[in-house]
From TrEMBL:
This is Glutamine synthetase. SUPFAM superfamilies: Glutamine synthetase, N-terminal domain, Glutamine synthetase/guanido kinase. One of its GO terms (biological process) is glutamine biosynthetic process. Mg(2+) binds at residues 132, 134, 189, 196, 245, 333. It catalyses: L-glutamate + NH4(+) + ATP = L-glutamine + ADP + phosphate + H(+). Binds 2 Mg(2+) ions per subunit. L-glutamate binds at residues 240-241, 298, 304, 316, 335.
Length: 444
């Protein structure tokens, strides 16, 4: 049973004086798209009859096959807390369907459900995600454009008065709570102007919906405080970038399938195999979890972001860390993912990688409890620790070579993703950057 019936929705819309409905979905690059309809069209929308032109959305379809349908997911019905005097605005998150009533292969949300089905075929009932998105707040100028000026000099867990972003962050948390989020933690991060808000884990589709909503709320509230919130992975050289650590677990009929009180580190065989699968495919799914040119400026030594493929229960530098709690909260924390990732695609490839480990009963390498950053390349190689890709170009090459990851995206998403990202890389590769002029202009 879902959370809401159509009748519930009609009743709430009336009681709360909702006047507009936003139908939201996420495109391949992870951007939220909106179609806003007056409430008079609600019946039509709930009958799955709302059409939009798929060819106008990046990477969706060709002109000749452009009619697509939005199927609202009733459980995602939420009223925005900040909306206008004339009446409120509510939203649904939608799946995209073809005119013949079949799900559209290029819909990232549908694709995640497809991979979840593969998980169910292996006997698991739930894939849970608890995300830890980080972001920066920059001041806006008089024209409302973002500047590079930070609004505080705070550091990790600092409080006001250094942390002037605190009021803004508190407002963000309040709005999120009004929208039904359960916020577990909210704090200043290591870099000046950097923040983190963690919310409660949920099944992967809901958690991805939450991430998308979260970004929208953070940006909207920041603007009201004269600030620009960015989820760009590495906005500033010389300080930490922004990650989005993903806490992952598999459940089987209400039991955490990663927990075994008698296992190594109290982890089950399933957990170890899942870890092995994620490590095996990590260099190849990185193009999806770290999808921008800028993502690779974060994955460098010295800034608490991973750049080597390893796991540990003790230290924080590896790609996978095992947080201390056990029992129902047993989970693995994948630390490479950044908040520029399309969460639906990121979860599809992470799940497929883990399931591949389970299907093939893979054994993970020994956990690395030393600081990997102080090891030499030879020492790393001896322990079987490989590097994550250093550029988007390298990451895309790897992605194309890995059948498991390609299948996790499906043909349509894979082809369109790679095409868009190769163009992005080529634009960066051929642009002349300020750094080059600084280095070479006087020298040559
Ligand atoms: N900002 C760090 C990163 O880029 C993570 C810091 C932390 O929360 O441990 O991943
Ligand atoms: Mg953090």
């Amino acid at each position: 049973m879902g959370k809401y019936t159509k009748e519930d929705v009609f009743r709430i819309v009336k009681e709360e004086n909702v006047k507009y409905i936003r139908l939201q979905f996420t495109d391949i690059l992870g951007t939220i798209k909106n179609v806003e309809i007056p409430v008079s069209q609600l019946q039509k929308a709930l009958d799955n009859k709302m059409m939009f032109d798929g060819s106008s959305i990046e990477g969706f379809v060709r002109i000749e096959e452009s009619d697509m349908y939005l199927y609202p997911d009733l459980d995602t019905f939420v009223i925005f807390p900040w909306t206008a005097e004339k009446g409120k605005v509510a939203r649904f998150i939608c799946d995209i369907y073809n005119p013949d009533g079949t799900p559209f292969e290029g819909c990232p949300r549908y694709n995640l459900k497809r991979v979840l089905k593969e998980m169910e075929d292996l006997g698991f009932t739930e894939f849970n995600l608890g995300p830890e998105p980080e972001f920066f707040l920059f001041k806006l100028d008089e024209k409302g454009e973002p500047t590079l000026e930070l609004n505080d000099n705070g550091g990790y867990f600092d409080l006001a008065p250094t942390d002037l972003g605190e009021n803004c962050r508190r407002d963000i948390v309040l709005e999120l709570e009004e929208m039904g989020f359960e916020i577990e933690a909210s704090h200043h991060e290591v870099a000046p102007g950097q923040h983190e808000i963690d919310f409660k884990y949920a099944n992967a589709v809901k958690a991805c919906d939450d991430i998308q909503t979260f970004k929208l709320v953070v940006k909207t509230v920041a603007r009201k405080h004269g600030l620009h919130a960015t989820f760009m992975p590495k906005p500033l050289f010389g300080v930490n970038g922004s990650g989005m650590h993903c806490n992952l677990s598999l459940f089987k009929n209400g039991e955490n399938a990663f927990f075994d009180p008698n296992g190594q580190l109290q982890l089950s065989e399933t957990a170890l195999q899942f870890i092995a699968g994620v490590l095996k495919h990590a260099p190849n799914f990185t193009a999806v979890t770290n999808p921008t040119v800028n993502s690779y400026k974060r994955l460098v030594p010295g800034y608490e972001a991973p750049c080597y493929v390893a796991w540990s229960a003790r230290n924080r530098s590896p790609l996978i860390r095992i947080p201390a709690s056990r029992g129902m909260s047993t989970r693995i924390e994948v630390r490479s993912v950044d908040p520029a990732a399309n969460p639906y695609l990121a979860m599809a490839v992470l799940l497929a990688a883990g399931l591949d480990g389970i299907k093939n009963k893979l054994t993970p390498p020994a956990p690395v409890d030393r600081n990997i950053y102080v090891m030499t390349k030879e020492e790393r190689l001896e322990e079987g620790i490989v590097d994550l890709p250093a550029t988007l170009a390298e990451a895309l090459q790897n992605l194309k070579s890995d059948e498991v990851i390609v299948n996790a995206l499906g043909k349509h998403l894979f082809e369109h993703f790679v095409e868009a990202k190769e163009i992005e890389w080529d634009m960066f590769r051929t642009a002349v950057h300020p750094w080059e002029r600084e280095q070479y202009m006087s020298l040559y």
